[in-house]
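Write out the bound-state structure for cobalt (II) ion.
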Amino acid sequence: MEVSDFVKWLVPFHLVQFTWVGSPLIRRRSRYLLTETQREKMRVACRFNADVMDFIRPHVQPGVTTGKLDELIHDYTLDHGHTPACLGYPGDKFPFPNSCCISVNDIICHGIPGDYELRPGDIANVDLTSIVDGWHGDQSETFLIGMVDAHVRDVTQCAFDSLYLAIEAIHPDCPISNIGEAIVEHVAQHYPGFGVVDKYIGHGIGQRFHQPPNIPHVPNRQSRQERLAPGMCFTIEPMINGGTSDTKCDRSDGWTVRTTDGAVSAQFEHTLLMTETGVEIMTRTQTGPQAGHTFQ
Ligand code: MF3
Ligand code: CO
Ligand code: CO
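---
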């Protein structure tokens, strides 16, 4: 018997829960802190996911259907021996029917690919998640289709800058709320009238698609209390609406989330690792927009 087992019998149970280092509470938290071997697994999964984004980017053009893009993503992923995490992912009502989410114009997130043909003036968010050797990489980009209105461009730029300002705002052991603070401040200052969606949030990620911690893009009580410890893997994925931040989920398919005022919505997402020295962007692409990018 180890000393710790002995201590367990001497300390009253209610104290053990909160004070003893080996308590279930603390062990549960450390499940989400990755070892170097596990971090390497995530790097491989995220690099593949970024490759899928680089593969699909030239296909996102006027005239292509969202269903065709989904099919290309599905086949590319399977051809490389990996699995699209979205396909069959359980929801409140129905499992997700496709291999990625494509959210056009007033669709905020979880758009279902289908017959819709992209046309000039649209924006389309492609959200990809791959499972590689049991580990998940998750990222999204919003694409401008041909020439778009200045307002539509602004919403897209705002979402892109929100992601990178949030990444710049975090460091080892900082409160999770640094993310929401950076985003809300930027939007209030430079884009008054735009809405930061708070109903849908970023998330911890690893051997599961969605796991603790919650990563809200608007600060709340929980995010002010929780910290980004070295070893945590998580997403930041701000959704910015060109009007109200309100959302409504389509009851007929159980997935499609739209703005309530019909305004457009844009989103960018990366999977990140907090290390002992700073944050690592794990889903960085070769040919996608890099930090500081300006949309024209
Ligand atoms: N990729 C989304 C995210 O960033 C989740 C999509 S769930 C799905 O968390 F089932 F719709 F694919
Ligand atoms: Co995500
Ligand atoms: Co995603």
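---
The first strand starts at residue 83 and ends at 84.
Residues 127, 129, 138, 140, 237, 269 surround cobalt (II) ion (ligand 3) (CB under 6 Å).
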